[in-house]
Design a protein that fits this description.
The structure holds two protein chains of two kinds. Chain A is of the alpha/beta class. Chain A contains ten helices and ten strands. The chains are: A alpha/beta, B mainly alpha.
Chain lengths: 248, 219
C-alpha cells in the first residue's frame, strides 16, 4: 500500500470547542479509515452532534485540526466548498428543499456545483433515487412523501455528489418507529458497498450490527471506543455500561 | 345640482385610455425593477457583507419614513440642481422603483428570515456557496411565503402612482385633472377614474394571485 492509502480518510486531532463558558468538545481525536462505519453514541449534550458538524465545517472549532482526504477543515468559503465536495451530510430533519421534486432535490447540487447538464441531472437523479428504492417517486414533492421516504431522498441527494464520507446526524430520530427500518436498510447497503460512514445514532442494535467502530462520548470527550460487538457485550467503563443499559 | 352627463367625457376617451396605459405600464415596469431592488436589498440585509447590510438598512429607513410625494419631488425638482435631469416619466419610474424597492426589501427579508436554518445547512453541505443556496434554495420558498404581502404592496404602489400627475407625468390621474379643467365635469370624470382605479386594483390582485399560483404551486 502506498502511504496515501494508509493515511486515515478523516483525521481529527485534539478538537476543542466552547459555546460561551461551556466547553462542549474537550480535546477529541479520532481517525476514520476508508470504508469504516463509525457509530458515535452518547447522551444528549455529550457533544456528539457538534463533533459531527465540525467535520464539514457547519460548526467551527477553537483549536485542534481536522482533515478529510487531505483537505483541511478551515474557514474560508472556497476551502469549505472544496471540503464539502468530499463530505456528504444527512440531517435529523431531512431538510429537503420543499419547492423541488425528489429528482430536483437530488440533481440540484450536481447542476449548481458541478455544472451537470439536463441529461446528466436526470440520470443522476434516477440512479440515486433507485439506489434508495425510490425510483418511482422522482416527480413527488417532499410534502407528498412519508418521513422515511423523505429521509431516503435526502440520502440520495447527498450521494449524488459522490462524497468520500457520509455524515449521518441522528437520521432516524425524527421518524415514526415503523419507518426507521427502511432508512437503516439503505444505510446498511451503503456500508456494505464500502461507503465510509460516520453516524451519530441512538439505534444501538444498528450500531452493533453494522458499525465497524463504536465511539462513546461522555462530557465532551471520547470516553471509550472500539469494536462495537465487544463493547456492547462487555463495556469497559461504568458510564458506557449504564448508557447501554438505560437504552436497552 | 347639475344633471350628470357622462357623454361629456367621450371626446376625451383617448386621453383617458392613454393615461390608463401609462399607469399600467409605469406600475408594471417599476414593480419588476422594485422587486429586483428588493431582492438584492434582502440579500444584502440577510447574507451580504456588513457594510452593504448597513447601507440597505439606511435606505429602507429613509424611504419608509418620508412621504412618497416628497421623494418624487426631490428626484424631479431637486436632482436637476445636482446635474441629473430626468423626464417626467423617468422620474416617476425611478421614484416608484426606489419606493417599492425599500418596502419589498423588508417584505422579502421576512420571507428569507423564515427559512429554516436546516435548509441553509443542507445547501451548504452540498458544497453550494451561500449565494448559490440563497439563489436556488432559499429564494423561491421565501417569495412564496410573502407573495400575498408583496402583492398588496404592489397594489399600494399602483394607487400611489396617481401622485406622479403632480410632476405632469401623464398618467390616469393627470388625464382626469386635464379633462375636468376643460369641461368642468369633475364629478363624472373622477367618478369614472375612481372606477377605473378600482377595476385596475381588482384585476391586478387577481392577476398577482394567478401568477403566484403558477410560480409557487401548492404541493
Amino acid at each position: 500500500m502506498s502511504p496515501a492509502e494508509t493515511r486515515p480518510l478523516v483525521e481529527i486531532k485534539d478538537i476543542r470547542k466552547s459555546f460561551g463558558p461551556l466547553e462542549v468538545l474537550k480535546g477529541i481525536s479520532m481517525d476514520v479509515a476508508q470504508g469504516d462505519v463509525v457509530a458515535i453514541i452518547g447522551r444528549s449534550g455529550s457533544g456528539k452532534s457538534t463533533l459531527l458538524r465540525t467535520i464539514n465545517g457547519l460548526e467551527t472549532f477553537d483549536s485542534g485540526s481536522i482533515s478529510v482526504d487531505g483537505t483541511p477543515v478551515i474557514g474560508g468559503e472556497k476551502e469549505l466548498k472544496a471540503l464539502r465536495r468530499k463530505v456528504g451530510m444527512v440531517f435529523q430533519q431531512f431538510n429537503l428543499f420543499p419547492h423541488l421534486t425528489a429528482a430536483e432535490n437530488v440533481a440540484l447540487a450536481p447542476k449548481v456545483v458541478l455544472g451537470a447538464g439536463a441529461k446528466e441531472q436526470a440520470e443522476t437523479a434516477r440512479e440515486m433515487l433507485e439506489k434508495v428504492g425510490l425510483g418511482d417517486k422522482l416527480g413527488n414533492y417532499p410534502s407528498q412523501l412519508s418521513g422515511g421516504q423523505q429521509q431516503r431522498v435526502a440520502i440520495a441527494r447527498a450521494l449524488a455528489m459522490h462524497p468520500k464520507v457520509l455524515l449521518c446526524d441522528e437520521i432516524t430520530s425524527a421518524l415514526d418507529p415503523e419507518l426507521v427500518n427502511e432508512v437503516l436498510r439503505v444505510v446498511e447497503t451503503l456500508a456494505k458497498d464500502g461507503m465510509t460512514l460516520i453516524l451519530v445514532t441512538h439505534e444501538m442494535r444498528f450500531a452493533r450490527d453494522v458499525g465497524s467502530k463504536l465511539v462513546f462520548m461522555h462530557h465532551g470527550k471520547v470516553h471509550e471506543e472500539g469494536d462495537p460487538k465487544t463493547l456492547f457485550a462487555k463495556p469497559g467503563t461504568p458510564e458506557l455500561a449504564q448508557f447501554v443499559g438505560s437504552i436497552g | 345640482m347639475r344633471k350628470l352627463d357622462f357623454s361629456a367625457l367621450l371626446p376625451y376617451a383617448d386621453a383617458l385610455v392613454e393615461g390608463l396605459i401609462f399607469t399600467v405600464v409605469l406600475t408594471l415596469v417599476s414593480t419588476l425593477a422594485g422587486i429586483a431592488v428588493g431582492t438584492v436589498g434582502a440579500w444584502a440585509r440577510t447574507s451580504g457583507p456588513r457594510w452593504a447590510g448597513g447601507l440597505v438598512a439606511a435606505y429602507v429607513e429613509v424611504i419608509r419614513n418620508t412621504p412618497f410625494i416628497v421623494q418624487l419631488f426631490f428626484i424631479f425638482f431637486g436632482l436637476p440642481a445636482a446635474g441629473v435631469k430626468l423626464s417626467e416619466a423617468s422620474a416617476a419610474f425611478l421614484a416608484m422603483t426606489i419606493n417599492l424597492g425599500a418596502y419589498s426589501t423588508e417584505i422579502i427579508r421576512a420571507g428569507i428570515d423564515a427559512t429554516p436554518k436546516g435548509h441553509w445547512e443542507a445547501g451548504l453541505s452540498l458544497a453550494m456557496s451561500r449565494f448559490e443556496v440563497f439563489r436556488h434554495v432559499v429564494l423561491a420558498p421565501a417569495f412564496k411565503k410573502v407573495w400575498p404581502a408583496l402583492s398588496s404592496q404592489i397594489i399600494i404602489v399602483m394607487l400611489g402612482s396617481s401622485v406622479v400627475s403632480q410632476i405632469s407625468a401623464e398618467d390616469l390621474t393627470y388625464a382626469a385633472n386635464f379633462i375636468q379643467s376643460r369641461n368642468f365635469r369633475a364629478f363624472e370624470v373622477y367618478f369614472l377614474v375612481t372606477a377605473l382605479y378600482l377595476a385596475l386594483s381588482i384585476a391586478m390582485r387577481a392577476a398577482l394571485a394567478a401568477l403566484g399560483a403558477k410560480l409557487f404551486p401548492k404541493v
